[in-house]
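TODO from last week: model Hypoxanthine phosphoribosyltransferase.
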Amino acid sequence: MDNDIERVLYSEETIKEACQRLGHQMAHDYQDKNPIIVGVLKGAVLFMTDVIREMDILAELDFIDVSSYNGGTASSGEVKLVHDLSIDVADRDIILVEDIIDTGRTLKFMQDLLKERHAHSIKVCTLLDKPSGRVVEAKADYVGFIVPNEFVVGYGLDYGDQYRNLPYVGVLKPEIYENK
């Protein structure tokens, strides 16, 4: 897999430091609030796991799976709910944990869904924020890194459901996904 990576953007150690920083900040902000931490499947699982280990607070966990990529390198523009939450979010504080915010469509879809379900508050924590990819208004409250407009994989992020298990985030060589 390493041979398919053009360059490493964020090392395992740098990611660990970001997880500690974000986890401590959210624990401070949510002291005595018992939030529901919602991981966005599948990409955010590794990040969510490492971040919540740094949060010394009571919290519930749940997962949601939405899709707009369908295995490719660009968003299809249509967001689909693949797996819904199992916890009632009404009057609860929610922390959405994302791997990357790119176009903003997926995030907006999830925020609208949680608002319709009367969540008390919704905050967003993302490992990577790619503001250059935005097509709709979307903003994270807690950001690991601002990422350049390149196709990245690793640490949960995939191409064709591969590369998620890399311990770092790297830029995938264009020849891997071009002409596919």
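Done. The chain has a mean pLDDT of 94.
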